[in-house]
Design a protein that fits this description.
Largest sheet of chain B: 2 strands, antiparallel
Number of domains of chain A: 2
Oligomer: heterodimer
Number of strands of chain B: 4
Largest interface: A-B, 43 and 46 residues
Number of helices of chain B: 11
Number of strands of chain A: 2
Structural class of chain B: mainly alpha
CATH class of the largest domain in chain A: Mainly Alpha
Helix content of chain B: over 70%
Number of helices of chain A: 16
Shape of chain A: globular
Structural class of chain A: mainly alpha
CATH architecture of the largest domain in chain A: Orthogonal Bundle
Shape of chain B: globular
Helix content of chain A: over 70%
Radius of gyration of chain A: 23 Å
Radius of gyration of chain B: 19 Å
CATH topology of the largest domain in chain A: ABC transporter involved in vitamin B12 uptake, BtuC
Strand order of the largest sheet of chain A: 1-2
Distance between the termini of chain B: 54 Å
Largest sheet of chain A: 2 strands, antiparallel
Chain lengths: 370, 300
Amino acid sequence: MKNEIKGAREKREFVLSVISLLLMAALVAMAQFDLLPIVGKYEKQVLNLCAIYTILGLSMNLVNGFTGLFSLGQAGFMAIGAYTTSLLIMAPETKDRVFYLEPIHPFVGALQAPFWVALLLSGLLAAVVAFFIGFPVLRLRGDYLAIATLGFAEIIRIIFLNTQTVTNGSMGIKAIPPTANLFWCFGAAALMVLFMLRLIHSTYGRAFKAIRDDEIAAEAMGINLFRHKMYAFILSAFMAGVGGGLMASVVSAITPNLFRFTLAYDILLIVVLGGMGSITGTVVAAFVITIAKEWLRWLDAGFTAGPLKVPEIPGLRMVVFSVLLMCIILFYRQGFFGSKEFSWKGLAALPKNLGIKIRRLFSRDKKEAA
Amino acid sequence: MFTFTLPELLQQMANGLTVGCLYALVAIGYTMVYGILRLINFAHCDIFMMSMYFCFYSISVFSLPWPVALLLVVVATALLGVLIEKAAYRPLREAPRISLLISAIGVSYLLENLATVLFTGVPRSFPAVGSLQKIVNLGDVRVQQLAIYAPVIMLLLLAALLYLINKTKTGMAMRAASKDFETARLMGINVNKTISVTFLVGSALAAVGAVIWGQKYSQIQPYVGVMPGLKCFIAAVIGGIGNIKGAVVGSLMLGMLEILMVWRFSALSGFKDAFAFIILIIILIFKPTGLFGETFVDKV
């Protein structure tokens, strides 16, 4: 009897999930075909970036949030993905035009592939590089791991700066075909979210979390530490590679300096603000942060607030952004979701829980006053 | 490839020593903060940058005599360090380390963008202090006077710092706090004050480093601190982060190797910045916690 009720609830939740996914897909399709009045060309670009940052955030959350490895090497894997995709999807003639300083290596010049193959290869290449980097790096602990992965990311960037015939050096690559539209970006992001959900609830996912919580205990339970860390690292690199490839197509011009190590900080912000070890959190934070950064642009242009007239101050946007960020971290350190995930049950209980939270807030205030 | 004269080698080594000493002054700040808070203070490189701007404004804009300006710069930078600690790190004392790290990244963004708003992104040229850039001849070796002053200044400051840490009560408090906050508190140590002192000293050293750095690489813009900061952090990690002597040894080693590499393999000079990381990774492969770092002890 009880099982039947549970079964019915699961069925209902499944139907709800499918409906909301279809609804989202319909919204994305409408946005792509310019049927939504609020989504213009600029908004589309921002939405593309939101989806890409979701992928990148998930990639970082897998190693940092779920496996507990403090890795800052995302920028390097993104660079690999971005360059692979752009070199594969550009027409040979365009490549010749872009590489005007020094001609492109003939082999690279002739390579061409459809977009989805290019994305897949981007991810795979990033994963292969991660495999080789993983051997020396994954033996390190804590902050030493962070600085070593960051170091490899910088080494990749500097290699790209110096291989003129393959990457066009510091000139970068321009005129990358804008194949990536909302379908590609949101499709890839949705696939990654589904993949992460499946992964986290598999034996591998449980092993990752065990390693995060206690390495010794995990090892005692028979988990091969190095191998599982390697799995997480490679998967994360694959996702970062795909994200980088999409980004190259969306922004249409890349240089090695786009992939400085500070890019990893931006992604880390998304992961921590969303909540370490929460897929829902990463998705929400990716959208919130990317949109907030764009929305704050009005600050740069100068504005009037009542009697106060603020002139045009370029850079004010980022000052306000960093202050907001610090406030969130100082007062809301668990991030938006902590390590919790979205569930229909949680949503249904939200009004009740909010009530309890607010009541608790007031009672604590009273206690402090007394 | 291996034909060169002795004076040439000595000249390059003098150059390497100067760079190494500069790295050391900033690396000490990283390592001290890490030692006590277990925090990679990403904002340290921007404190360095701010102090370069302080120096630019006090000498080039307000044309103060440079001894006064130097003192002012050191004091202002030290206060900035303490202020950052109070505002951004102290409220997170009991929070998980990752929050602290994000807070550091936030401060770093804030300082960089604030500098862009206040000082604009236009590169400025750093004022020459005194006679540091004069060339002197030591036998056949021609070096900037800076190459003589930098090691002397660094060693004097290092001696003072080691005295502070090993012989004074404040130093003892710092060492105790870096072992364990709770126990240190029980021994009657004001941990918050001790951490403030750590930031004060680290930032003051970074200010000295910034002024000397400006004599060698005179262009300043809001992101000027990023690369030196990263290199100094690498140097601290090479030495074993948390260890002051390690930071100095790591810095000297890194500065020397970098300069010698660019000199001998000039074809590879495009890879100069990658070279620091390669050294770092090679060292970490053999010594996973740096040259003088504490080894991790697994506790069950």
